[in-house]
Amino acid sequence: xxxxxxxxxxxxxxxxxxxIGSKVxxxxxxxxxxxxxxxxxxxxxxxxxxxxxxxxWNLDGSDLSVTWDGRVIHFNGGWAVGPIQKSIITxxxxxxxxxxxxxxxxxxxxxRDKTVLLLGGxxxxxxxxxxIEACRRGGLLISTETTIIDDVGSAVAGSxxxxxxxxxKGTERADKAAPERxxxxxxxxxxxxWSEYPDASNVDVVLVPAIDGNFxxxxxxxxxxxxxxxxxHSVQNYFHLNELLASGWPMPVVxxxxxxxxxxxxxxxxxxxxxxxxxxxxPQALMDEADRVL
Length: 294
Hints:
The chain has two domains: 96 residues, no CATH class; 190 residues, no CATH class. The strands form three sheets. Strands 7, 8, 9, 10, 11, 12, 13, 14 and 17 form a nine-stranded mixed β-sheet that branches. It is of the alpha+beta class. It is globular and about 60 Å long. The protein contains seven helices and 17 strands. Strand 10 and strand 11 form a beta hairpin.
């Protein structure tokens, strides 16, 4: 039976994907755009080095199904590419975590000689617009959608794409506005430009932004529980445990009690740095508030 085998990497993390069936595609994914948006630099490796697969997709499976055996995700049937893509992200995130690297759903900037993490958190309303405004004020870009943070709390890598414009079949989102519309509202037709900060750096301060046209500007330092609660939302985001892959099929539970405990222990160490919840009607007003503590 024909088989396609590809190896993908994100930093030191490696996974192998096998696709089997009477007619297999040339590549598992036609585009790597979404993977790079979600996990920084994801590459198809030129050679397969892993002895065993991490994801197996049997295209000829008679019944649609997805299972997890503790190590390998198994897909059977004619799945859309989007759910496969999400599962690849989850597997890479697990391997990254095992290597001491933690993807945070966040943006980050080097601003006023500090590395500032703009955390998506529970609500995820404002990190991208705050990142753009911080860069407009002279900040250097570290990351847009995902910041990779190591065990000692340094931002070591990050995604660079601000807006995702193409989603694979099966991951379309009617609730997402046109990608650049919000930026046009806040910044006009000409997007601010910026340079990138090239070095790894310790995260000095974390901001949890919330932008809503009804908010008066406010800033509050967060207590330890709030810091860890919001941060857990951001790191759990990559395991897709709150999502459906298809109607009737949730993402398999790939987590373990040991991983969950280790993740929480990392966050208890990371979240000792200053955290602030900031609310405002616009990114400009939000960064005015941020400037008070930065």
